[in-house]
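notes to self, project folder thing:

trying the whole complex as one job this time. last attempt i did each chain seperately and stitching them together was a nightmare. two parts in total, labels are on each line so i dont mix them up again. if this works i'll redo the older ones the same way
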Amino acid sequence: MSPTQWDFPVELCCRPMAFVTLTGLDVVYNAVHRAVWDAFCANRRADRVPISFKVLPGDHEYPKCRPKRTSYEWYIPKGILKTGWMNKHLNLVPALVVVFYELDWDEPQWKEKQSECATRVEIVRQSLQGRNTKVAVVLIQKKTPLPPGEDVIASERAAALCNACELSGKSLFVLPHTDHLVGYIIRLENAFYEHAQTYYYTEIRRVKSHKEFLNKTTHQLLFVRHQFKIAFFSELKQDTQNALKNYRTAYNLIHELRAHETNILEIKTMAGFINYKICRLCFQHNTPLDAIAQFRKHIDLCKKKIGSAELSFEHAAWMSKQFQAFGDLFDEAIKLGLTAIQTQNPGFYYQQAAYYAQERKQLAKTLCNHEASVIYPNPDPLQTQTGVLDFYGQRSWRQGVLSFDLSDPEKEKVGVLAIQLKERSVVHSEIIITLLSNAVAQFKKYKCPRMKSHLMVQMGEEYYYAKDYTKALKLLDYVMCDYRTEGWWTLLTSILTTALKCSYLMAQLKDYITYSLELLGRASTLKDEQKSRIEKNLINVLMNESPEPEPDCDILAVKTAQKLWADRVSLAGSSVFTIGVQDFVPFVQCKAKFHAPSFHVDVPVQFDIHLKADCPHPIRFSKLCVSFNNQEYNQFCVIEEPSKASEILENLTQEKMCLVPGKTRKFLFKFVAKTEDVGKKIEITSVDLILGNETGRCVVLNWQGGGGDAASSQEALQASRSFKRRPKLPDNEVHWDSIIIQASTMIISRVPNISVHLLHEPPALTNEMYCLVVTVESHEKTQIRDVKLTAGLKPGQDANLTQKTHVTLHGTELCDETCPALLTDIPVGDLQPGQQLEKMLYVRCGTVGSRMFLVYVSYLINSTVEEKEIVCKCHKDETVTIETVFPFDVAVKFVSTKFEHLERVYADIPFLLMTDILSASPWALTIVHSELQLAPSMTSVDQLESQVDRVVLQTGEGASECFCLQCPSVGNVEGGVATGRYIISWKRTSAMGSVPVISTVITLPHVIVENIPLHVNADLPSFGRVRESLPVKYHLQNKTTLVQDVEISVEPSDAFMFSGLKQIRLRILPGTEQEMLYNFYPLMAGYQQLPSLNINLLRFPNFTNQLLRRFIPTSIFVKPQGRLVDENSIAAA
Amino acid sequence: MAVCIAVIAKENYPLYIRSVPTEDELKFHYMVHTSLDVVDEKVSALGKALVDQRELYLGLLYPTEDHKVYGYVTNSKVKFVMVVDSSNTALRDNEIRSMFRKLHNSYTDVMCNPFYNPGDRIQSRAFDNMVTSMMIQVC
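result (full assembly):
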């Protein structure tokens, strides 16, 4: 954009830097000079001193200095600040002029060169006549200089040169053209900088010195001017603190000026400049709050200084610029590291700038609405001779006039007219939109989504005014949903109204229809008459006619639009617009509701579509159709306008296909579900309502799922909370709020009409063939076909149960691992009504615990629904939990031949194995057979015959067996010696003969076998008799490979007398046996202790009598002496 | 006194909104709506504070050239927004605070009405009168 009169001049906005000119450099043809110049200008980063350099020829003419005024007495200033002043000091009048000259100290023609140099300096001095500008000389030398003091010629010649050029020694520099050029340059420019600062310091002093000549009455403007100049020079001097101070003073002074309509623009312009400088410096000093405070003060002071009412748009433009400039400053400060907050960020200033720009537009619209016949005045009052103004903020046709009276009212009028006409050509919308988009960018950054939306609405509206309807629609459409989701209907309606206008003016059919639909809806806050107008337009559009223009539209634009619409009409063809309603709030509401959450397959599926229109007039629709996830049902759920042929029915259908505002209309749909869909969900995926003619223009309102739009979920929530009593309605009508959408239903199978009974005797016993009798009885009215039985372990239980459960239909043989846990689809055949059938199942459970068994009977039956023959598959299932228990417990123990418990057995010495079977079954058990299978290491002493064959055990009863075994010496085996297996074959006593016998195998425990050195066994009768001799023979066997020394003694007993060796010591050879014979003579009857035999092995001290007692009896039953058989005595007893 | 008073639901839709110069209604609606940005931000900052120490009054939300917007949020996250003319310097923070308290009391009365369904637009006459009284009090 080209700068307008309101933009700040460049010289105001830039950062003032000391101005230094370089002369005597030929940067075009001299490579050395070029290098020097490049070193000056390249890489001017922040660490370099702030100087702006310029290369000028040595004889350049600088602006002439006006002769010094000796007195201000008769001087009357014509304005505050000359337009050229800032530029003059930034770019024209240098603080320092540097003369570059190539001269080495050992130059042979020194004299000539020296005088040439002096001439050059003189020329520069001439053109700077009257200015305080400093002059410095830089000698470009080829040789590296010697350290100071060493080169005598150099110091001499330097002094001479200074003399010739009338320079102080501080202003003469040497620039050796060697490797370290940049380093030298930096040192040089630092020196220049010091000179420049001195220059600006003297300038400040010079301006200050004028002050005393001024008086308050005539020189008020000068006070401001001087203060401004001091501040500006301070800035050039980089003394920002003082600059700020002086700007502040200048600002205060400017508001002390007498303001009048004629000079108010000048005052505001200058105030704006100074304010800009102050704010800029405050931000630079990192005191943003000061900047904001100054700006607020500035605005408050100037807000009311409107000036001429005819040119009030100028004030608005100025205000807008103030805000924009501050926004820019703020934004720049943020880029340099300042942090802004949500409530204080540049966005607000841009927004306000936009607001004033809008005001400017409004004012310009009312003030500049001249007739077309009014022509721009000639000569142009806005043209000045020089093309620019002399002073900032003055009127071109009366520059320098200070009088408050208008000397030439005619000229004034022409001037105002010229400004007004010029304002007409300003593209306000562009300015406003730029400002708004700046603000949007800021608010986006500072988390103000709503502010952003608001500004985007304004941008959209501005685009609308600027007749850029496409952009307007794009913006409005973008923000609409924000207002919709938050439920700000008033705001949404206002946006929609603008959007509707845009779409009308562009003849955008789809948009036009969409916005109309929503403006007619319940979210719109429009009045009824407006709604009815929109509805009429909508109907027109649907009937392929042009709508009436929207109110308050630009007349020209309406004309264009009408043509566009006419084109649309002539281009008539079939045009279908599908509009998804879930993102907005249309004027027709829809709710679909299945009558039940599930339907049996043999009854028709029924659902209602409820429609309600919110528009002011009744509206007709042409078609209503429903789509499902299974598209085959779609065809059954369509309501359509009948074809033209059946005109007779017109009245009737019109009634049906017409939505009356505010009334809920219900449409009932019915269809028969497919048998394949049993167990599936039927879902309404969408409901389409077609408005208009399908052959011409029509709109398809498409509800996803069972209806509902952008606002309905919130409404439903509110309705569910409400306790309000709804007024009673006639029977066939319902309250809209009370309808709850139910968009899906399940299809479930027909209710079975059979009974399934299970007969069995729980609990099951481990491993038995457990019998389960299934009885199926049909109660159906017709024959059922294809009856199938699925039975077994219910799936979904512990996986181990599946491994250990087997089901079979054949009970006569034991089932093995190959049998499955679940028998599926056993065909059973057909069943006539009332017929029943029985099926036996056998289950074998390998482990104890409870199991769930499933019996599932399925069958087919023909059924008629809505005159449609369908084959229904029905099923019925029964589950039963069966506990499995052990049939019996088996206990095994080892005992000695004396029935004493044995922890270990002795090699070659017989012992007893005892088994106890204890029935745990609640049912009687028959032990068919039992068998002991010995391990090879065991031998039996006698026959291993079963002692419990055909024993019937009732609950809790037990059966025991006893086997005498012997184990040869095996040496030391870890963990003992295997004994063998005990196999019990059994069945339920109640089971039929065909049921197989179950063998339960019990692995017998291992036994520890130990060797003993000496085995003693006794031969003695089973009983003795008092006073009858009782012979006892002890056999002592040596089981070792050693000769055993044995000490034997027999202790006397009260109950016996005995004969034999009482105490003896003898030797037994390895593997041999020694017999000891005793004759006991019992003296008393009853259980009597035998005289105890003590054996002591000298080689085996561990062999004790304790051990010995295990093998030999310690007591014997002694019978009393019998009488002679006497028959009488018995009789007498 | 106030030029616009609004009650905003927890879900940020308006429950009640009234402004005095009715011709500029839309402007005030926008102003109240945009102020919710600041309310949201302040509430989320408050959320970290202890519940019982929470100050319901949010203070000045943001100043515009001509108006000042104040905010207040109840414990159930219902927001009250009040727009005051910038030129009205008589209204200090304390007055605003007490006005909000009055508004809150009146709102509580509305909520206590068994026939009022929370979340519906407020149509109570008593509340309306209260708001009117706060709007036309001597400036």
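what i see at first glance: Chain B touches chain A at residues 11-14, 17, 25-26, 29-30, 33-34, 36-38, 41, 61-62, 64-65, 114-115, 117-120 (CB under 8 Å).
need to look closer tmrw
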